[in-house]
Amino acid sequence: MQQISTQIPLGTDQNEQPERGHWQIDDLDFDAIERSAIEDNEDLFYLLMSASFIETGSETYAANLAEHYSEYPEITAWLRDRWESEELQHGTALRRYVEAVWPEFPWQKAYDSFFDEYSKLCTVEELHPDRHLEMVARCVVETGTTAYYHTLREQSDEPVLRELLGNIRNDEVGHFKHFLKYFKQLQENAPVARTRIAGALYARLKELRESDSDVALRHVYAHRGNYFAQSQHSFADIAQRAYELISSQLPADLAVRMLLKPLLLPARLEGYLHAPIARLATRVMAP
Q1: Closest Cα to residue 198, out of 189, 210, 206?
Q2: pLDDT at 113
Q3: In the predicted structure, residue 210 carries a pLDDT above the cut 80
Q4: In angstroms, what CA-CA distances link 52 with 6, 119, 216?
Q5: What does the alpha-carbon distance between residue 41 and residue 110 come to, in Å, rounded to a whole number?
Q6: What distance in Å separates the CA atoms of residue 247 and residue 144, rounded to the nearest whole number?
Q7: Is pLDDT of 152 > 90?
Q8: Does the structure show a pLDDT above 90 at 29?
Q9: What is 162-183 written as a DSSP string?
Q10: Residue 74: helix, strand or coil by DSSP?
Q11: Which one has a higher pLDDT value, 57 or 279?
Q12: Phi, psi of 110 (to 5 degrees)
């Protein structure tokens, strides 16, 4: 992973200042998209289409998480009222963008095919039975999505896309902060050992390589039609190229700082562990 500096703040107390108004889809000028700057980019075609599928399918995952944390009204309220709505907004905005750039792609048909498979994999049983450690897993996932959208933003000069991906990336940082806050609350009531937290972090980090994006990529590839039809890349090539692009360009400094937060380490120890954790993350995520 490259060391890419970022100005994204990682403070975790959501009550220190009032939340600013959330961005709206209508804030984006889709008519101003510079199609010539992106429409021939095969990698972004697959990555953005896949992201639009996964974000649009967030409703099922949000329902599963809300059920998993049904004993905690504050958590379930946030999942239903904020997290789910923002994730679905990401899906809607990404869909509008990709349909504007690649209008002949049969988005709804491809998404329906994707969701038929994805919904069978997205179950409550897939969540960690220990709610503390599932919250740790959520922190890892939000770290991954933050880094993912940050990386995609760095891959394009198209202004509307950069604005959209910047908005989504910042939302994912906010989601990470909330999951971390709720994890801390659970720890205060019934703490789990730091070794178990580290184990959950490592296990979920390894799973990022076998993520939902593989399912989404397959359905984008199957419905691509004439888009990049002359490409010599097989689906295996596309999946490997996508993975290498993201994993080789991830903002390591940001990702490692986020990954260390659930360990609740003293600041001095956190700083000491930064380098070895970065090396470990690089080995786990290496193509």
Answers
A1: 206
A2: 97
A3: no
A4: 24, 15, 9
A5: 20
A6: 10
A7: yes
A8: yes
A9: HHHHHHHHHHHHHHHHHHHHHH
A10: helix
A11: 57
A12: -70, -40
Q: Are 56 and 111 in contact (CB under 8 A)?
A: yes
CB 1 within 8 A of CB 247: yes
CB 183 within 8 A of CB 135: yes
Residue 13 has pLDDT above 60, yes or no: no
Q: What is the pLDDT of residues 174-195, one digit of tens each?
A: 999 999 999 999 999 999 999 9
Six token digits for residue 235? 């689906």
Can you state the percent helix, strand and coil of the chain, rounding each to 5?
75, 0, 25
Please identify which residue in the block is written with the tokens 């069978």: 120
Q: What is the pLDDT of residue 209?
A: 59
Nearest to 147 by CA among 8, 286, 276: 8
C-alpha–C-alpha distance, residues 218 and 34, integer Å: 27
Match 């075609």 to its residue by tokens.
45
What is the residue whose two structure tokens read 């190229």? 241
Within 10 angstroms of residue 149's Cβ, the number of other Cβ atoms is 22
Question: Given the structure tokens 């220190």, which residue do they identify?
Answer: 16
Single pTM value for the model: 0.88
Residues 48-96: tens digit of each pLDDT: 999 999 999 998 889 999 999 999 999 999 999 999 999 999 999 999 9
Query: What size, in residues, is the chain?
Result: 287
Q: Which residue has the tokens 């990682």?
A: 10
The candidate with the shortest Cα–Cα distance to 247, out of 206, 203, 216, is 206
Of the candidates 164, 166, 41, 28, the one whose C-alpha atom is nearest the C-alpha of residue 101 is 41
Tokens standing for residue 263: 């360990």
